[in-house]
Amino acid sequence: MALTRFERFLGRLLRAVVWMLFAVFKLFAPQQGHGGVSRLPSITNPLLLIPAMQLARKIRRKEVTSVEVVQAYIDRIQEVNPLINAMVKDRFSAAVQEAAQVDKLIEEETGGEDVLEDRLPLLGVPITVKEAFALQGMPNSTGLLTRKDIVSGVDAPSVALLKRAGAIPLGVTNCSELCMWLESHNHLYGITNNPYNLERIAGGSSGGEGSILGAGASVIGIGSDIGGSIRIPCFFNGIFGHKPSVGIVSNDGQYPPASGLQMGFLTTGPMCRYAEDLIPMLSIMGGPNAQKLSLSAEVDLKKLRFFSVPHNGGSPLVSPVDAELLQAQKTVVKRLEADLGVKVQELFIPQLKYSFQIWGTMMSSPGKDGKPPTTFSELLSEGGKKVWPIWELFKWCLGFSSHTLAAIGLASFEMFQSSHPSPFILQQKENLQQ
């Protein structure tokens, strides 16, 4: 489908605005001070280099104590967090006490290691949690200043399941304001830095989790994803994560909750420093629903069909895929074909050109009950005066806004999109009605 004149014009306008924004951000971007240090100190404690499930096994076998493991991660957080600003509130004292109780439980257990593994597969292993999730006794602001005094009285279901499996929370980590941007910055906690380059962002919205895991200051964590909020920080910070199928892991206990059609896209999932921990974590977080995924089934990779999607076809509304990423994808294709003897088919989906418009429309569409979703402006207004995006942008230019430019921009885009829907989306709606 050919691009409309309006879309071509909008694309050129957007690229011009992006270049101007780059210049503005270069001058005024928020900086998290790191005292001139350019990189994180190296990991010296070998306990920080062991996957979570292996740590749990060592703790059960009394090869190491939970207190030693928890303290090793606390030490690492205290060493690197002043540089990356990933953890925004800790519970170190409580975590050490809980670790001591774990060690006592293991000493008194008479049923053997197998009983503990079956009942408490993560016994004694530390974990970190995205601040958007309820963790008892911890803040749950999602970076919104008007929610700064809100403290969780209970655990989100996904947090509760991991704690029930024996995991010990160390604290909560930073996210973008209201979880709706690809960097983790808000006016309550500041900006989170990338552990591999302190001058770069950690991604978002689960960027605090991505950064702390990438820094070796956590081994497993909890994130959420509706448009890349697990996947982007994992990519940015060199770690592993998974956006599960909808309906497997409960989304309850996080803020903001999904509404409208968003409920069919938001998912809660695991984030890990080591890939081998993904399936065990998802199995625990999913509870009884995890059985729907057949996670323990053997998969013959040679019998799968593989597809490669290099790009979206050249939408004017997004940046083109970097040549280095295209080459990396080709390298993966060659490796799959050589190792498995399969043929990877290169796939082009014309409608991908409109993926941004499709996603934006989904975010603002009513659910099955016909109720429209809560607007981003309404979420920004929670607990305070109503937020008007244009007025807020003016305040931001003068340094008086309590919201980030990303949040203001998203609210403005939402307002614009509601009055100027994409011609492609209008055509699809007409097709559905026919």
Q: Care to describe what's here?
A:
It is a single chain. The protein has 434 residues and is an alpha/beta fold. The protein has two domains: 46-297, Amidase signature (AS) enzymes (Alpha-Beta Complex), CATH 3.90.1300.10; 307-433, no CATH class. Helix content is 40%, strand content 11%. It is built from 15 helices and twelve strands. The chain has helices at residues 5-28, 52-60, 66-84, 92-108, 113-119, 157-164, 207-214, 231-237, 278-286, 323-340, 355-363, 376-380, 389-397, 405-419, 423-433; strands at residues 87-90, 126-130, 168-173, 185-186, 190-191, 193-194, 197-201, 220-225, 240-241, 267-272, 306-308, 344-346. The strands form four sheets. It has a six-stranded mixed β-sheet, sandwiched between helices. α6 packs across α9 (278-286), α7 packs parallel to α8 and α13 (389-397) packs antiparallel against α14 (405-419). The longest helix has 24 residues, at 5-28. It starts with a helix and ends with a helix. The mean pLDDT is 90.
